[in-house]
Amino acid sequence: MIEYLPDNGDESYLYVEIDKNSRRDTSAVKNEIASIFKEYFNISNLQLNQTISIKTLSQSILDVDGVVTFSTRRGNLTSNLLQLLVYNPVYPNDDYTFTEQDINLKYFQFPYFKDLLNISNRIEVTRQE
Predict the structure, then answer these.
(1) In angstroms, rounded to a whole number, what is the distance separating the alpha carbons of residues 121 and 129?
(2) Is residue 4 one of the residues assigned to a domain?
(3) pTM of the entire structure?
(4) pLDDT reported for residue 7
């Protein structure tokens, strides 16, 4: 059993590879991907009972000019899909899961992305070799 700590999701990172022949600066790609998350999870774009589309977010990342692939990494665990931690902040030790599928919120649930303003600290962009 994984021992859960409220900051467990803080150890997750998005690793993005861009084409070795791309002329784009890696920091520009990183900023563009961070903007995707900031726009999607902007409080003015969110509502109760909505679906968080991981498929849409993933496709938006892949649509960034130069991006070839990406993976989500948490410790020594790697997923070639976008993976998000979903948890109840009232019961963080009992009610959490990592998911790679769209999230259908209940009628009383509102989406929140923890530390969204610093999302770029969780994104690493490298050039393929």
Answers:
(1) 23
(2) no
(3) 0.85
(4) 52
